[in-house]
Here is the input.
Amino acid sequence: MASSSLLPHSLLSLPTASSRFPKSSLTISSISFSLNQVSITRTGSVAFQPLVRRGRESTFGIARAGETGEETPAETGGDESTTETVEEESSVAVAVEEKPPKKPIVKLNEIIGILNKKAIEEAETIKVVPDIKPGDIVEIKKEKANRRRLALYKGIVISKSSSGVHTTIRIRYMTSGTAVEIVFPVYSPKIKEIKVVSHRDVRRAKLYYLREKLPRFYTFKKK
Amino acid sequence: MAAASRGRALISRLFLFQSSLNASPKCPALSIYSRNFSADPLPDYASESGAGATRIIEAKSGVMAPDSRRTGAIGIKCGMTALWDKWGERLPISVLWLDDNVVTQVKTVEKEGFFALQVGAGQKKEKHLTKPELGHFRAMGVPLKRKLKEFPVTEDALLPVGTPISVRHFLPGQYVDVTAISRGKGFQGGMKRWGFKGMPASHGASLSHRSIGSTGQRDAPGKVFKGKKMPGRMGGEQTTVKNVWIYKIEPARNLMWVKGQVPGPEGSFVFIKDACYKKPDKSLLPFPTFFIPDGEETESLEPIVADLGDNDPFMAGD
Here is the structure.
């Protein structure tokens, strides 16, 4: 038998030629000639080509079998490896034509940033979030539990903490003789409307000094 | 010199003789390592392992028995964010990325004495691997992986080498146990490491506001017991967070959104298994793993979110 004459390790795959040929339905069949005869049949198709870039792989072919199974994988594997090496060694122009356009490489530390951007885009469909800076006097309409009417808050923004979709602003205002500071996550679905009413010139990013100031600096009349 | 080498040769021959005595159809491995003399007939491997049976593992779905256990997966912790679910409730979220999980080795009772699947994740260049590691991947016929982890399974949950394990192996809404090496905190004192209360800040307490205080009794026993909680290196060891709820999975990018915290810093490997306490519903889990049906374009699939029910928790009073 031709297959038994070949050494086992020559059949077996080396790194991920599958990533270079991102076909959606690719069956990989791997055969192990271990002496305990744990023989393994075909596996499922490869799911998803990962986003992170791989290193330069060697050009040895995988023992790739057709849908029918592994009749003579030795011969097909051998043939495919030679054709692949020929493809690799061909001119740059031919390689560029055959390879699909490279996907943009995504680094691990960019994943969270990308996910946050997507989440912000989704949140923007609920309401348009204006550009808010410390010193703005804003009106916020928020949905409350077990209430039909939206609650209204009007106060001065004393700080803004940017962290993607969980960007928060801290509002300070005075109601019935009590000073109140509330933190609102700007992209929360419970906040139905944010409107910048006016702006006060400040020379700080965080206006915590207002806590020691007279209440008239953070009292606003709700209309 | 000559005597010593003769002695060594004698010992090795005795060992081989003993191993050939011990060789039997049940453990063909030993007979393989014994010396074959030309007068003896050639060993027939096929018939020798006939008693052990050729195990064929197929990649097809099965039914999960009550005592079945399926594999876990290896993920990479990408970071944490917060999300709001469909009712508007805020969820703290950890994002895990199941990068290219592939079964790299199958361990069976015949050879290793137990059933387990070794899963590999990530990618690695050939020049960054040692020769033994490289030989292991070559022998199994799998791509080079960055992290290998073994998951004990039951016999019906075995998968063939090379099977990809995608994020759809888990269901949104199920609970999982997440194991990882926690963040290293360095050398820490008793208050941070063990939660000691320390001592008063004033009222005459001298030079010992954060110290551990007494370490034992007096003459009896006259020693400090082993295991006494004391300052030392904290963190950087394997920790398991149990009953972590999966909120959302994205099959196109193999991402998993999980509620709450997960041990370890960003970029570290986490090992995800089905929860042992809040067990998931066995009839709903893909067993032994999720096999992609023909014609399905994974990259065009939408993210799958856990089912949160029909009752708005914020309108509970009605």
In short: The CA atoms of residues 46 and 54 of chain B lie 9 Å apart. Chain B touches chain A through 69 residues (CB under 8 Å).
